[in-house]
Design goal:
The protein is an alpha+beta fold. The chain has two helices and nine strands; from the N terminus they run αββαβββββββ. A six-stranded antiparallel β-sheet has the order 4-9-5-6-7-8, with no helix packed on it.
Length: about 150
C-alpha cells in the first residue's frame, strides 16, 4: 500500500533520531473508518510515557505531510511484552526470559523457554526449568529460527 510506505519513509528517520525503531505500519478499515497503526520498538522497555512522546513527535509530521487519504485514527503502540526478537540482537537480551523456536528439535522439543544466560557467535546458553530442577542447556545459534520475549509465571 502506497500510504503505509509513505508513512514509513516519513517517520523512520525521525524515530531513529529519538532512539526508536519503526517496527511496523498498517492501515486498517473497519465500520468506524480508517486506523493508522504505528508499532515502535527499541531494546529497552517502552513505557506509556514513551508512547505519548512518540505520538507527540509524529502527529505534527503526519498532519503536515498528510500521507493518508482521508480522516483516520492514529494508534501508536509498542510490540508488547512478548515482542519478537531479531536473532542478531540476542546478545542485548542476556538476562531476559525468552521463548526460542528451533529449526532442529532439542531433545524432541521445538520450542524452549528460559533465561537467556549467554550468547556467543556459535551458541546460546539457556537456563530452563524441568519440574523443580534448573538446568543450563546449550543450543547452536543456527538451530534457532525465531525468538521472542516471554512472560515468566
Amino acid at each position: 500500500m502506497k500510504e503505509t510506505e509513505a508513512v514509513k519513509s516519513l517517520l523512520t528517520p525521525v524515530l531513529e533520531k529519538e532512539g526508536f525503531e519503526l517496527a511496523e505500519v498498517t492501515l486498517t478499515r473497519d465500520k468506524d473508518g480508517l486506523t493508522l497503526h504505528i508499532f515502535v520498538d527499541r531494546d529497552e522497555p517502552i513505557s506509556l510515557d514513551d508512547i505519548v512522546r512518540v505520538s507527540d513527535i509524529i502527529n505534527p509530521i503526519l498532519d503536515q505531510e498528510d500521507p493518508v487519504d482521508g480522516p483516520y485514527v492514529l494508534d501508536v503502540s509498542s510490540l508488547g511484552l512478548e515482542k519478537p526478537l531479531k536473532l542478531e540482537k540476542l546478545p542485548h537480551y542476556v538476562g531476559k526470559y525468552v521463548n526460542l523456536h528451533l529449526s532442529h528439535p532439542f531433545e524432541g522439543e521445538n520450542t524452549l523457554e528460559g533465561d537467556l544466560l549467554e550468547v556467543n557467535e556459535e551458541e546460546v546458553a539457556l537456563g530452563i526449568k524441568i519440574k523443580a530442577r534448573k538446568k543450563t542447556i546449550r543450543l547452536k545459534r543456527d538451530a534457532i529460527d525465531k525468538a521472542r520475549l516471554a512472560i515468566k509465571f
